[in-house]
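Write out the 3D structure for:
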Amino acid sequence: MKTPLVTFLLLLASSFSFASTWSVYEVQVKQSDAPAVASALDKFMQSGVGKSMPGGVHLNATLFGGTNKATHAFVLLFPDLATQLEWQASVPTTEAGQEFGAAMDALATPVASWTNSMIKVWGTPSNSDRVHQVTRFYTTDPLAVLAAQEKLMSDPSMADFPGQVGLSQTAIGNRLGANGAYTTHVFTVGFESVKEMEDWGNYLNTQPAWAEYLQTVNGVATFMGTELVTNAAVYDAKMDLETFLK
C-alpha cells in the first residue's frame, strides 16, 4: 500500500506533463580554474559527440548563491528527459567524453543535480537574455501559483516587462536544504543585463499588482531563496533559448 506521502508526491508529479526539460548539474570550481572549465567544455562541444547533442548547454557562473556552494552549473536544455539521457549515455563511450570527464574530475567538485519540466513561459523569450534569477519554492497548490502568475502577467503594469519568466516543476532531484526540505517548483526570470533587471525591479516594487501577487503566492508557497546567475558560455546550435521557451 502506498503511504500518504508517496501518494501525495505522485499526484503532485502528475499535475503537469513532462514537456521541455532543463537539467542542472551544479559544481564548485576554484576561481583560478574557471577558465580551464570553460576551455574543456568548449573543446568537448567542438567534438563529434558534442556536435551531436540534440539540445543546448549553458555554462552558468553564480553571481550570488546564498548558502549554495556551487560556483558554476552546466544547464542542459532538451525537448524531453528521455532524449537527454539517451545522449548522455553515449558521452562516456567516446574519447572526447572521457577527456571531458577527466577534466571535470580534476577541476570541479559536484554539488547537486536536479531536473525540471517547463510548465509555462511569460514575457518575450530572447537569446540575448544572459542574466537569470532562479527562485526555488515548495507548494502543495501549484495551480494557485500558476493562477497568481497569470493574473500578475495580465495586469497593465506588466505591459512593458522586458524579460521572460518561466515556471517549472522540479520533477526529479528536488531534495534540497536542511532537515529534508525540498522544492517542488522553480521560477526563472531572464534579463539581458543586470541594469535591465534592476530598472525593472525598481519599477515593479511601486506597483499594487506586484504587492497583491506577493501576498497571494506567500499564502500558497514557501520560498527557498533566489540565486543570480549569468551565462559564461552558451552552445545552442540545436536548441537555443527562444526555441526552448516557445
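Residues 174 and 183 are 5 Å apart (CA to CA).
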